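In the laboratory, one determines a bound structure by crystallizing the protein with its ligand and collecting diffraction data. In a computational setting the workflow is compressed into a single prediction: the sequence and the ligand go in, and a structural description comes out. We illustrate the idea with magnesium ion.
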Amino acid sequence: MGFACGREWYTFGMPLLAIETTCDETAAAVVTRGREVLSSVVASQEQLHARWRGVVPELASRAHVERILPVIDEAVARAGIGFAGIEAVAVAVTPGLVGSLLVGLAAAKGIAATFRCPIVGYDHVAAHLYACRLTHGDAIRYPSVGLVASGGHTSLFLVRGPLELDRLGGTIDDAAGEAFDKAAAILGLGYPGGPEIERVAAGGDPRAHRLPRPLASDRERLDLSFSGLKTALRYLVRPPGAPADLPTPQGRERADLAASFQQAAIDAIVAKVDLALAKTGCRCLLVGGGVAANTLLRDSLDELGRRRGVPVFMPPRSLCTDNAAMGAIAWERLEQGADDGLALDVRPGTDRSAARRSDVRSAEPRQGV
Ligand code: ADP
Ligand code: MG
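The predicted complex, in C-alpha coordinate form:
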Protein backbone atom coordinates (compact mmCIF):
# COMPACT_ATOMS: atom_id res chain seq x y z
CA MET A 1 0.00 0.00 0.00
CA GLY A 2 1.18 3.49 -0.70
CA PHE A 3 0.22 6.74 0.95
CA ALA A 4 -2.14 9.52 -0.01
CA CYS A 5 -0.45 12.59 -1.45
CA GLY A 6 -3.01 14.12 -3.78
CA ARG A 7 -2.82 11.44 -6.49
CA GLU A 8 -5.35 8.65 -5.93
CA TRP A 9 -3.01 5.91 -7.07
CA TYR A 10 -0.55 6.53 -4.28
CA THR A 11 -3.35 5.55 -1.93
CA PHE A 12 -3.95 2.29 -3.75
CA GLY A 13 -0.38 1.31 -4.61
CA MET A 14 1.29 1.24 -7.99
CA PRO A 15 -0.67 1.12 -11.26
CA LEU A 16 -0.99 -1.55 -13.92
CA LEU A 17 0.42 -1.38 -17.45
CA ALA A 18 -2.01 -2.95 -19.96
CA ILE A 19 -1.08 -3.92 -23.52
CA GLU A 20 -3.49 -4.64 -26.38
CA THR A 21 -2.51 -5.93 -29.84
CA THR A 22 -5.29 -8.39 -30.72
CA CYS A 23 -6.09 -7.02 -34.16
CA ASP A 24 -5.22 -3.71 -35.79
CA GLU A 25 -4.75 -1.33 -32.86
CA THR A 26 -1.46 -1.11 -30.98
CA ALA A 27 -2.46 0.15 -27.55
CA ALA A 28 -1.09 0.59 -24.05
CA ALA A 29 -2.61 2.12 -20.93
CA VAL A 30 -1.76 2.71 -17.30
CA VAL A 31 -4.61 2.11 -14.87
CA THR A 32 -4.68 2.36 -11.08
CA ARG A 33 -6.10 -0.24 -8.72
CA GLY A 34 -8.96 2.21 -8.23
CA ARG A 35 -9.61 1.82 -12.00
CA GLU A 36 -8.51 5.37 -12.79
CA VAL A 37 -7.02 5.59 -16.29
CA LEU A 38 -3.76 7.56 -15.97
CA SER A 39 -2.96 7.23 -19.67
CA SER A 40 -4.33 5.46 -22.74
CA VAL A 41 -2.46 5.44 -26.04
CA VAL A 42 -3.91 3.90 -29.21
CA ALA A 43 -2.03 3.69 -32.51
CA SER A 44 -4.63 2.72 -35.09
CA GLN A 45 -3.64 0.94 -38.30
CA GLU A 46 -6.76 2.06 -40.17
CA GLN A 47 -4.80 3.93 -42.85
CA LEU A 48 -2.59 0.90 -43.40
CA HIS A 49 -5.48 -1.47 -44.07
CA ALA A 50 -7.79 1.00 -45.84
CA ARG A 51 -6.49 -0.01 -49.26
CA TRP A 52 -7.68 -3.59 -48.67
CA ARG A 53 -10.88 -2.53 -46.83
CA GLY A 54 -10.14 -4.99 -44.07
CA VAL A 55 -7.36 -6.05 -41.74
CA VAL A 56 -4.47 -7.90 -43.45
CA PRO A 57 -3.00 -10.09 -40.66
CA GLU A 58 0.63 -10.04 -41.85
CA LEU A 59 0.64 -6.25 -42.22
CA ALA A 60 -0.98 -5.91 -38.81
CA SER A 61 1.74 -7.92 -37.03
CA ARG A 62 4.54 -6.01 -38.76
CA ALA A 63 2.99 -2.68 -37.79
CA HIS A 64 2.64 -3.89 -34.18
CA VAL A 65 6.37 -4.73 -34.14
CA GLU A 66 7.21 -1.18 -35.23
CA ARG A 67 4.80 0.57 -32.89
CA ILE A 68 4.64 -1.46 -29.70
CA LEU A 69 7.65 0.04 -27.89
CA PRO A 70 6.91 3.71 -28.70
CA VAL A 71 3.27 3.20 -27.70
CA ILE A 72 4.22 1.60 -24.37
CA ASP A 73 6.85 4.28 -23.72
CA GLU A 74 4.31 7.00 -24.37
CA ALA A 75 1.69 5.43 -22.09
CA VAL A 76 4.21 5.15 -19.25
CA ALA A 77 5.49 8.69 -19.81
CA ARG A 78 2.01 10.22 -20.00
CA ALA A 79 1.10 8.50 -16.74
CA GLY A 80 3.99 10.34 -15.14
CA ILE A 81 5.68 7.17 -13.92
CA GLY A 82 8.70 5.04 -14.90
CA PHE A 83 8.71 1.30 -15.60
CA ALA A 84 9.89 0.71 -12.03
CA GLY A 85 6.61 2.29 -10.89
CA ILE A 86 4.47 -0.47 -12.41
CA GLU A 87 2.78 -3.05 -10.19
CA ALA A 88 2.11 -5.59 -12.97
CA VAL A 89 1.77 -6.03 -16.74
CA ALA A 90 -1.52 -7.10 -18.29
CA VAL A 91 -1.79 -8.29 -21.87
CA ALA A 92 -4.69 -9.37 -24.09
CA VAL A 93 -3.96 -12.99 -25.04
CA THR A 94 -7.27 -14.09 -26.59
CA PRO A 95 -9.04 -13.97 -29.03
CA GLY A 96 -7.31 -12.32 -31.97
CA LEU A 97 -4.79 -12.70 -34.79
CA VAL A 98 -1.90 -14.93 -33.76
CA GLY A 99 0.91 -12.74 -35.09
CA SER A 100 -0.60 -9.61 -33.55
CA LEU A 101 -1.20 -11.25 -30.16
CA LEU A 102 2.38 -12.55 -30.03
CA VAL A 103 3.87 -9.06 -30.40
CA GLY A 104 1.96 -7.75 -27.38
CA LEU A 105 2.76 -10.84 -25.35
CA ALA A 106 6.50 -10.67 -26.13
CA ALA A 107 6.62 -7.02 -25.06
CA ALA A 108 4.70 -7.78 -21.87
CA LYS A 109 7.00 -10.67 -20.99
CA GLY A 110 10.09 -8.56 -21.58
CA ILE A 111 8.82 -5.90 -19.18
CA ALA A 112 7.68 -8.43 -16.56
CA ALA A 113 11.03 -10.26 -16.66
CA THR A 114 13.11 -7.09 -16.57
CA PHE A 115 11.20 -5.36 -13.79
CA ARG A 116 10.32 -8.61 -11.95
CA CYS A 117 6.62 -7.91 -11.77
CA PRO A 118 3.59 -10.18 -12.29
CA ILE A 119 2.18 -10.71 -15.79
CA VAL A 120 -1.52 -11.41 -16.28
CA GLY A 121 -3.24 -12.41 -19.53
CA TYR A 122 -6.76 -11.19 -20.15
CA ASP A 123 -9.63 -11.85 -22.54
CA HIS A 124 -10.12 -9.07 -25.09
CA VAL A 125 -13.88 -9.65 -25.45
CA ALA A 126 -14.51 -9.69 -21.69
CA ALA A 127 -12.41 -6.52 -21.55
CA HIS A 128 -14.71 -4.80 -24.07
CA LEU A 129 -17.55 -5.26 -21.55
CA TYR A 130 -15.28 -4.21 -18.69
CA ALA A 131 -15.00 -0.80 -20.37
CA CYS A 132 -18.53 -0.27 -18.93
CA ARG A 133 -17.11 -0.87 -15.45
CA LEU A 134 -14.43 1.76 -16.07
CA THR A 135 -17.09 4.33 -16.88
CA HIS A 136 -19.98 3.36 -14.63
CA GLY A 137 -18.21 1.73 -11.67
CA ASP A 138 -20.26 -0.15 -9.12
CA ALA A 139 -23.59 0.85 -10.68
CA ILE A 140 -23.28 -2.29 -12.82
CA ARG A 141 -25.25 -5.28 -11.58
CA TYR A 142 -24.61 -8.94 -12.25
CA PRO A 143 -25.85 -11.07 -13.84
CA SER A 144 -26.12 -8.89 -16.93
CA VAL A 145 -26.66 -9.48 -20.60
CA GLY A 146 -23.52 -8.44 -22.49
CA LEU A 147 -23.39 -7.45 -26.16
CA VAL A 148 -19.98 -7.19 -27.84
CA ALA A 149 -20.17 -6.00 -31.45
CA SER A 150 -16.92 -5.18 -33.24
CA GLY A 151 -15.13 -5.81 -36.50
CA GLY A 152 -14.14 -9.33 -35.49
CA HIS A 153 -16.78 -10.33 -32.95
CA THR A 154 -20.52 -10.10 -32.45
CA SER A 155 -21.75 -12.07 -29.46
CA LEU A 156 -24.27 -12.05 -26.67
CA PHE A 157 -23.25 -13.21 -23.22
CA LEU A 158 -24.72 -14.01 -19.88
CA VAL A 159 -22.29 -12.01 -17.75
CA ARG A 160 -22.22 -13.47 -14.23
CA GLY A 161 -19.28 -11.28 -13.21
CA PRO A 162 -16.41 -9.42 -14.91
CA LEU A 163 -14.57 -12.70 -15.56
CA GLU A 164 -17.55 -15.02 -15.88
CA LEU A 165 -19.10 -14.97 -19.32
CA ASP A 166 -21.28 -17.63 -20.94
CA ARG A 167 -21.81 -17.11 -24.66
CA LEU A 168 -25.53 -17.21 -25.41
CA GLY A 169 -25.24 -16.70 -29.17
CA GLY A 170 -24.06 -14.28 -31.78
CA THR A 171 -23.24 -14.08 -35.43
CA ILE A 172 -23.06 -17.24 -37.47
CA ASP A 173 -21.18 -15.50 -40.31
CA ASP A 174 -19.94 -11.90 -40.57
CA ALA A 175 -19.39 -9.78 -37.47
CA ALA A 176 -21.52 -6.63 -37.33
CA GLY A 177 -18.55 -4.28 -37.85
CA GLU A 178 -17.35 -6.45 -40.71
CA ALA A 179 -20.81 -6.10 -42.32
CA PHE A 180 -20.59 -2.29 -41.98
CA ASP A 181 -17.11 -2.38 -43.53
CA LYS A 182 -18.32 -4.49 -46.48
CA ALA A 183 -21.48 -2.41 -46.96
CA ALA A 184 -19.32 0.72 -47.11
CA ALA A 185 -17.17 -0.92 -49.79
CA ILE A 186 -20.30 -1.79 -51.82
CA LEU A 187 -21.40 1.86 -51.57
CA GLY A 188 -17.97 3.17 -52.57
CA LEU A 189 -17.30 4.60 -49.08
CA GLY A 190 -14.07 4.57 -47.10
CA TYR A 191 -12.68 2.26 -44.40
CA PRO A 192 -13.48 1.62 -41.60
CA GLY A 193 -17.02 1.43 -42.87
CA GLY A 194 -19.02 1.91 -39.66
CA PRO A 195 -18.38 5.64 -39.18
CA GLU A 196 -18.70 6.20 -42.96
CA ILE A 197 -22.09 4.47 -43.19
CA GLU A 198 -23.25 6.39 -40.12
CA ARG A 199 -22.15 9.71 -41.62
CA VAL A 200 -23.80 9.15 -45.00
CA ALA A 201 -26.93 7.55 -43.47
CA ALA A 202 -27.64 10.78 -41.59
CA GLY A 203 -28.83 12.30 -44.87
CA GLY A 204 -30.92 9.31 -45.97
CA ASP A 205 -34.30 7.67 -45.35
CA PRO A 206 -34.02 4.39 -43.41
CA ARG A 207 -37.37 3.28 -44.89
CA ALA A 208 -36.34 3.84 -48.51
CA HIS A 209 -35.41 0.17 -48.98
CA ARG A 210 -36.82 -2.80 -47.12
CA LEU A 211 -33.70 -4.87 -46.40
CA PRO A 212 -33.85 -8.20 -44.52
CA ARG A 213 -33.31 -8.52 -40.76
CA PRO A 214 -31.91 -12.07 -40.85
CA LEU A 215 -33.00 -14.29 -37.93
CA ALA A 216 -34.62 -11.32 -36.17
CA SER A 217 -38.04 -12.97 -36.13
CA ASP A 218 -36.61 -16.23 -34.75
CA ARG A 219 -37.60 -15.94 -31.09
CA GLU A 220 -35.79 -19.14 -30.09
CA ARG A 221 -32.16 -18.71 -31.12
CA LEU A 222 -29.89 -15.92 -30.00
CA ASP A 223 -27.96 -16.16 -33.26
CA LEU A 224 -27.37 -13.33 -35.68
CA SER A 225 -26.47 -13.30 -39.36
CA PHE A 226 -25.26 -10.41 -41.50
CA SER A 227 -24.10 -12.03 -44.72
CA GLY A 228 -27.62 -12.15 -46.26
CA LEU A 229 -28.15 -8.48 -45.46
CA LYS A 230 -24.83 -7.63 -47.07
CA THR A 231 -25.76 -9.64 -50.18
CA ALA A 232 -29.19 -7.98 -50.38
CA LEU A 233 -27.47 -4.57 -50.39
CA ARG A 234 -25.03 -5.82 -53.02
CA TYR A 235 -27.89 -6.87 -55.33
CA LEU A 236 -29.74 -3.59 -54.82
CA VAL A 237 -26.65 -1.69 -55.88
CA ARG A 238 -25.53 -4.08 -58.57
CA PRO A 239 -28.24 -6.57 -59.65
CA PRO A 240 -27.11 -9.94 -61.04
CA GLY A 241 -26.16 -9.49 -64.71
CA ALA A 242 -25.66 -5.72 -64.34
CA PRO A 243 -23.08 -4.21 -66.70
CA ALA A 244 -19.57 -3.93 -65.24
CA ASP A 245 -19.55 -0.15 -65.75
CA LEU A 246 -22.73 0.44 -63.73
CA PRO A 247 -21.82 3.49 -61.61
CA THR A 248 -21.80 3.29 -57.81
CA PRO A 249 -24.78 5.19 -56.33
CA GLN A 250 -24.09 8.73 -55.20
CA GLY A 251 -25.85 11.51 -53.31
CA ARG A 252 -29.37 10.91 -52.01
CA GLU A 253 -29.55 7.42 -53.53
CA ARG A 254 -26.43 6.35 -51.61
CA ALA A 255 -27.65 8.01 -48.42
CA ASP A 256 -30.95 6.08 -48.61
CA LEU A 257 -29.09 2.80 -49.13
CA ALA A 258 -26.73 3.52 -46.21
CA ALA A 259 -29.61 4.49 -43.92
CA SER A 260 -31.65 1.42 -44.89
CA PHE A 261 -28.66 -0.87 -44.32
CA GLN A 262 -27.82 0.71 -40.97
CA GLN A 263 -31.43 0.44 -39.79
CA ALA A 264 -31.65 -3.24 -40.78
CA ALA A 265 -28.35 -4.17 -39.10
CA ILE A 266 -29.22 -2.33 -35.88
CA ASP A 267 -32.79 -3.72 -35.82
CA ALA A 268 -31.37 -7.24 -36.10
CA ILE A 269 -28.98 -6.66 -33.18
CA VAL A 270 -31.58 -4.98 -30.96
CA ALA A 271 -34.10 -7.80 -31.57
CA LYS A 272 -31.61 -10.34 -30.21
CA VAL A 273 -30.60 -8.19 -27.25
CA ASP A 274 -34.32 -7.93 -26.42
CA LEU A 275 -34.64 -11.71 -26.69
CA ALA A 276 -31.54 -12.27 -24.53
CA LEU A 277 -32.99 -10.02 -21.79
CA ALA A 278 -36.31 -11.87 -21.99
CA LYS A 279 -34.73 -15.32 -21.88
CA THR A 280 -32.25 -14.66 -19.08
CA GLY A 281 -34.39 -12.34 -16.96
CA CYS A 282 -31.28 -10.18 -16.46
CA ARG A 283 -31.96 -6.67 -15.16
CA CYS A 284 -28.86 -5.03 -16.62
CA LEU A 285 -27.34 -4.62 -20.10
CA LEU A 286 -23.65 -4.07 -20.87
CA VAL A 287 -22.50 -3.08 -24.37
CA GLY A 288 -19.02 -2.89 -25.89
CA GLY A 289 -16.99 -3.08 -29.11
CA GLY A 290 -16.49 -0.67 -31.99
CA VAL A 291 -20.07 -0.92 -33.32
CA ALA A 292 -21.26 0.34 -29.92
CA ALA A 293 -19.97 3.74 -31.10
CA ASN A 294 -22.94 3.83 -33.51
CA THR A 295 -25.49 6.45 -32.47
CA LEU A 296 -28.51 4.57 -33.83
CA LEU A 297 -27.46 1.45 -31.89
CA ARG A 298 -26.86 3.45 -28.71
CA ASP A 299 -30.21 5.25 -28.99
CA SER A 300 -32.08 2.03 -29.86
CA LEU A 301 -30.57 0.15 -26.90
CA ASP A 302 -31.34 3.06 -24.57
CA GLU A 303 -34.93 2.93 -25.82
CA LEU A 304 -35.06 -0.85 -25.31
CA GLY A 305 -33.72 -0.39 -21.77
CA ARG A 306 -36.37 2.22 -20.98
CA ARG A 307 -39.11 -0.03 -22.35
CA ARG A 308 -37.92 -2.98 -20.28
CA GLY A 309 -36.95 -0.93 -17.22
CA VAL A 310 -33.38 -2.25 -17.52
CA PRO A 311 -30.37 0.04 -17.05
CA VAL A 312 -28.10 0.08 -20.10
CA PHE A 313 -24.36 0.68 -19.68
CA MET A 314 -22.19 1.73 -22.60
CA PRO A 315 -18.66 3.13 -22.54
CA PRO A 316 -17.94 6.48 -24.20
CA ARG A 317 -17.13 6.07 -27.90
CA SER A 318 -13.37 6.27 -27.28
CA LEU A 319 -13.56 3.13 -25.13
CA CYS A 320 -15.79 1.21 -27.58
CA THR A 321 -13.16 0.64 -30.26
CA ASP A 322 -10.02 -1.28 -29.31
CA ASN A 323 -7.97 0.26 -26.51
CA ALA A 324 -5.82 -0.92 -23.61
CA ALA A 325 -7.62 0.97 -20.82
CA MET A 326 -10.16 -1.84 -20.77
CA GLY A 327 -7.21 -4.08 -19.79
CA ALA A 328 -8.10 -2.79 -16.31
CA ILE A 329 -10.02 -6.07 -16.18
CA ALA A 330 -6.70 -7.66 -15.20
CA TRP A 331 -7.05 -6.05 -11.76
CA GLU A 332 -9.90 -8.49 -11.12
CA ARG A 333 -7.35 -11.34 -11.20
CA LEU A 334 -4.39 -9.43 -9.79
CA GLU A 335 -6.44 -8.61 -6.70
CA GLN A 336 -6.72 -12.36 -6.19
CA GLY A 337 -2.93 -12.71 -6.39
CA ALA A 338 -2.77 -14.00 -9.98
CA ASP A 339 0.54 -14.19 -11.85
CA ASP A 340 0.50 -16.17 -15.12
CA GLY A 341 4.30 -16.15 -15.31
CA LEU A 342 6.51 -16.26 -18.37
CA ALA A 343 4.90 -19.47 -19.66
CA LEU A 344 1.80 -17.41 -20.58
CA ASP A 345 0.77 -18.04 -24.20
CA VAL A 346 -1.73 -16.63 -26.69
CA ARG A 347 -4.97 -18.30 -27.75
CA PRO A 348 -5.79 -16.95 -31.22
CA GLY A 349 -9.14 -17.37 -32.94
CA THR A 350 -12.54 -15.74 -32.61
CA ASP A 351 -14.86 -15.36 -29.67
CA ARG A 352 -16.90 -18.18 -31.11
CA SER A 353 -14.42 -20.92 -30.27
CA ALA A 354 -15.48 -22.75 -27.11
CA ALA A 355 -11.87 -22.92 -25.92
CA ARG A 356 -11.67 -19.19 -25.28
CA ARG A 357 -13.96 -19.54 -22.32
CA SER A 358 -11.61 -21.86 -20.43
CA ASP A 359 -9.79 -18.97 -18.75
CA VAL A 360 -12.91 -17.75 -17.01
CA ARG A 361 -14.84 -19.53 -14.35
CA SER A 362 -17.92 -20.78 -16.16
CA ALA A 363 -21.18 -21.88 -14.71
CA GLU A 364 -24.14 -23.73 -16.19
CA PRO A 365 -26.41 -21.43 -18.17
CA ARG A 366 -29.79 -20.82 -16.62
CA GLN A 367 -32.74 -22.96 -17.61
CA GLY A 368 -34.15 -21.93 -20.95
CA VAL A 369 -31.07 -19.99 -22.02
P1 ADP B 1 -11.75 -5.02 -33.91
O1 ADP B 1 -11.40 -5.91 -32.78
O2 ADP B 1 -12.47 -5.69 -34.98
O3 ADP B 1 -10.60 -4.15 -34.38
P2 ADP B 1 -13.01 -2.62 -32.81
O4 ADP B 1 -13.65 -2.71 -31.47
O5 ADP B 1 -11.77 -1.80 -32.94
O6 ADP B 1 -12.86 -4.08 -33.30
O7 ADP B 1 -14.12 -2.10 -33.82
C1 ADP B 1 -13.86 -1.83 -35.17
C2 ADP B 1 -15.14 -2.05 -35.95
O8 ADP B 1 -16.18 -1.17 -35.45
C3 ADP B 1 -15.02 -1.77 -37.44
O9 ADP B 1 -15.58 -2.84 -38.15
C4 ADP B 1 -15.83 -0.47 -37.63
O10 ADP B 1 -16.44 -0.36 -38.90
C5 ADP B 1 -16.87 -0.59 -36.54
N1 ADP B 1 -17.37 0.73 -36.15
C6 ADP B 1 -16.65 1.76 -35.64
N2 ADP B 1 -17.45 2.84 -35.47
C7 ADP B 1 -18.69 2.48 -35.90
C8 ADP B 1 -19.95 3.16 -36.03
N3 ADP B 1 -20.08 4.44 -35.68
N4 ADP B 1 -21.01 2.48 -36.52
C9 ADP B 1 -20.88 1.17 -36.87
N5 ADP B 1 -19.73 0.48 -36.79
C10 ADP B 1 -18.65 1.12 -36.31
MG1 MG C 1 -9.82 -2.55 -34.32
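Residues 142-310 form a domain with the Nucleotidyltransferase; domain 5 fold (CATH 3.30.420.40). Keep in mind that any predicted model is a hypothesis to be tested, not a measurement.
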